[in-house]
Design goal:
Number of domains: 2
Strand content: 15-25%
CATH architecture of the largest domain: 3-Layer(aba) Sandwich
Distance between the termini: 51 Å
CATH class of the largest domain: Alpha Beta
Shape: globular
Radius of gyration: 25 Å
Length: 352
């Protein structure tokens, strides 16, 4: 087993907001997502029979309905689509229906028949729930989830000292171990105030959050995360980042097998073209990717230059520079010399 020294990682945060119906979970989730998205669009995945559309008054987002069929696979497909579309954050409102809604986990366990433990949970329920949670936790962008809590009422004193029944949330309507997976868990009360039940060790965060304070709350989190690094530090990190990208996942496996370092592999993978549809026939050669100084030339720099300057899909030109770089590397040519060769190819192509 390989052991590596880890720098402080910067990762997309995963939030869970718990509370009874009407507590303001969706409202607060959107405020958190707006701050996390950092100016990018938000994907709102609604399983609450269209009620999320009313939140357009609260924040701007792109909407998709999950109502009617609450198969966890549908949730996963929607999240993957949001990632590929380039959204800055996902609001998943809510996880309750994936558990007890039509075609949700419980529904599929009950429909399985046979022994409820070995056949129902062992072959259906457990795998379904695990795949859903893995998709949320490994999602490469922030995800803010809500979950209903079972309702109960307590008699409390209001501001005038009068005894009034007050709705309170009990256990979430989801699997018991749901809370283990999230970075932040916030319990939302009927006055919309949030109480932090779980969070990383971030100094300066209050234990309660007023609805008007979510922007400042998330800003402190982002400041804390900014001290970390965004690049993958292990092969498993790369696997998570490439979730659903079969082309680059296969390339990563090949590089791992040949002993490429994680940092060099990621430099190559970041520049690797995924589909020919995204490649212009006559791309502009980026000036910013001029050759680095000699003391900075690595195979990662060579491959990044090659992928960013390949001519494109026209007439079979895709991958010419990358193929040339790989061929020269297999002959043990120094990375600086290979980069010089690639620059000559680019220059001749530009002049011609």
């Amino acid at each position: 087993m390989d052991f590596v020294e880890i720098q402080l990682p910067s990762k997309p945060m995963k939030f869970l907001l718990r509370g009874p119906t009407g507590a303001g979970k969706t409202f607060n989730a959107l405020h958190i997502a707006v701050a996390l998205a950092a100016g990018k669009e938000i994907a709102f995945l609604d399983s609450e029979s269209g009620r999320g559309q009313m939140m357009a008054r609260v924040a701007k987002f792109k909407y998709a309905s999950l109502s009617g069929d609450y198969n966890p696979a549908k949730y996963i497909e929607a999240m993957n689509s949001a990632v590929k579309a380039g959204f800055g954050a996902i609001v998943l409102d809510s996880l309750t229906q994936a558990w007890n809604g039509t075609n949700g986990v419980l529904d599929q366990v009950n429909a399985r028949g046979g022994n409820s433990f070995t056949d129902g949970w062992g072959k259906v329920g457990g795998p379904l729930q695990n795949k859903l949670m893995d998709a949320i936790i490994t999602c490469p962008i922030p995800v803010v989830c809500t979950v209903r809590s079972k309702m109960s009422y307590e008699v409390r004193k209001d501001e005038r000292g009068k005894s009034v029944p007050t709705a309170v949330g009990l256990a979430p309507e989801q699997r018991d171990n749901l809370s283990y997976e999230f970075d932040f868990i916030i319990d939302v009360a009927m006055d919309h105030e949030g109480t932090i039940a779980k969070m990383p060790p971030i100094e300066g965060l209050e234990s309660t959050i007023n609805p008007s304070e979510y922007a400042a709350f998330v800003a402190k989190i982002l400041t804390w995360m900014a001290t970390g690094v965004n690049e993958p530090q292990t092969w498993n990190d790369i696997k998570v980042r490439l979730q659903g990208d079969t082309h680059r996942t296969e390339l990563a496996k090949q590089m791992k097998a040949t002993g490429t370092s994680v940092s060099d592999a990621w430099a190559i993978l970041e520049g690797e073209v995924v589909s020919t549809e995204s490649i212009p026939d006559n791309p502009v050669i980026p000036v910013s990717r001029a050759a680095p100084a000699n003391n900075e030339i690595t195979w990662g720099a060579v491959m990044s230059y090659a992928t960013e300057n390949d001519k494109g899909a026209k007439e079979g030109q895709r991958g010419v520079l990358v193929g040339r770089a790989k061929a020269e590397r297999s002959r043990d040519v120094a990375p600086g010399d290979v980069l010089a060769l690639l620059r000559d190819v680019v220059a001749e192509r530009t002049i011609g």
